[in-house]
Design a protein that fits this description.
The protein has about 160 residues and is mainly α. The protein has a single domain (about 5-159), classed as Methane Monooxygenase Hydroxylase, Chain G, domain 1, CATH 1.20.58. It is built from eight helices and three strands; from the N terminus they run αββαααααβαα. The protein has helices at about 5-20, 50-75, 85, 90-100, 110-130, 130-140, 150-155, 155-159; strands at about 25-30, 40, 145. Strands 2-1-3 form a three-stranded antiparallel sheet. Helix 2 (about 50-75) crosses helix 5. It binds zinc ion. The site of zinc ion (ZN) has 4 residues, from helix 1. Zinc ion binds near residues 10, 14, 64 and 93.
Length: about 160
């Protein structure tokens, strides 16, 4: 399993979900840094969180996992994946999602129902955006750091 390729799809998923929701970022990178294989650098300190936004925040965070999952399923159609690999609570994205949502719900059952609903939406979005996600992932494998401006200039990636 090519983990560089998997990372490229994962980060492309985050980046395209952000672009789709008009969220600006500085760059998307698949250069390993510390324990992270890649990241999307955002510079938006102190942004207010309210429920309308929470859905988008969670969707953007889930989009990496959803894109990675879609990539693996496409690449290895006969392999049976253990879903707990994707939703492992020690994964940074899952950890960050729970940090965001925990305070919003009275109990874990409601929270998990909300997360399931957002994940379902994320999956649908990722499938809709698969063309651009794939283009960006392939571009990242050639050039491991791509800025928001470069992406805006490269319209063929986005459309
Ligand atoms: Zn991620």
């Amino acid at each position: 399993m090519n983990s560089k390729e998997k990372t490229a799809y994962h980060e492309a998923g985050h980046a395209l979900a952000m672009i789709h929701h008009k969220r600006k970022f500085e760059y998307v990178s698949i250069v390993p840094e510390g324990r992270f294989l890649g990241h999307v650098r955002v510079n938006e300190p102190g942004r207010e969180i309210y429920l309308g936004d929470l859905v988008i925040d969670v969707l953007v965070l889930f989009a990496g996992i959803a894109a990675e999952r879609q990539y693996l399923k496409t690449k290895y159609p006969h392999k049976k994946f253990n879903e707990s690999y994707f939703f492992n609570p020690i994964r940074k994205d899952i950890h960050d999602i729970r940090e965001l949502t925990r305070a919003f719900f009275k109990n874990e059952e409601e929270e998990l129902r909300f997360l399931q609903w957002v994940y379902y939406r994320t999956d649908q979005k990722v499938i809709q955006m698969w063309g651009p996600i794939e283009k960006l992932a392939k571009a990242l494998l050639k050039k491991p750091v791509i800025t928001y401006e470069e992406l805006q200039a490269a319209n063929p990636i986005l459309n």
